[in-house]
Amino acid sequence: MERFQLYVVVVILGYFAILTVPAVLRYPLAFTEEFSEALVNTVVLSTISTLITLPLALVLAQGSLRSPGRTLAPLVTATVSVPHTAIGVLLAPLVFGAGLVDTPAAIVIAMTIVSLPIGFTALRSALVSLGTGYFEFLAGMGVTGWRVIPIAIRSIRSAVVISAILSWFRAFSELGAVLILARRPTTIGVYIFENFLAWGAAPVVGGSVALLALAVAVGFLIERLTGVARGK
């Protein structure tokens, strides 16, 4: 192994160790029934959010390759840079006015708003990588507008799967906006937040480690899909 690669491995393992070793050594990996309920709630609501987000991201990504969509794309991606408690505050007039506070609908709205930029960016990058010649060829064949989307999807299948996974996990991990709009039904982020405030880290370390392990497994899956897309 080259020295540079050794340094990379050391940093990666050190990064992961900082997240896991102190917590695992200090606290028992306990799980509660409430954790399971919050996990199920979050899985279901994240899935609903992703089913909304993915088609929107596909349409927006395709439309953003040319003006005016390209010019207006920052209106979607800007929310990535905004604290999500602020996103919750901005959504509050809509959610409160519609009487959706502390409902699954409010959580899905928050999840969709924060995950759409992630799915959109992943798909847009994949479409850009096809090159302008790809779309010029389709235009020459008379395929334009909405009809391009199903053809493009077949060319970026791995990117579509990755976009769906990233959107799902971004929805799954959302906390800031949900704290403002809907703490019930309990999602996994709210469960950990509330229990930590009430009891400290001990009751929620086990669940946090389990969530991290799940995220790592999905990370390896994404890396595998990315490698397949590159032909490696």
Feature tags:
globular; 232 residues; 12 helices; MetI-like fold
Task: Please tell me about this protein's structure.
With 232 residues, the chain is mainly α. The protein has a single domain (29-230), classed as MetI-like (MetI-like fold, Orthogonal Bundle). The protein has helices spanning 3-26, 33-63, 69-72, 74-77, 84-97, 104-130, 132-140, 148-155, 157-172, 176-181, 188-199, 205-229. Helix 2 (33-63) packs across helix 11.
Quick structural gist:
The protein is mainly alpha-helical and 232 residues long. It has helices at 3-26, 33-63, 69-72, 74-77, 84-97, 104-130, 132-140, 148-155, 157-172, 176-181, 188-199, 205-229.
Q: Assign the structural class, choosing from mainly alpha, mainly beta, alpha/beta, alpha+beta, or little secondary structure.
A: mainly alpha
Number of helices: 12
Assess the beta-strand content as a share of residues.
under 5%
- Overall shape: it is globular
CATH architecture call = Orthogonal Bundle
- At the fourth level of CATH, the homologous superfamily is MetI-like
For the largest beta-sheet, the strand count, sense and barrel status come to: none
Number of strands: 0
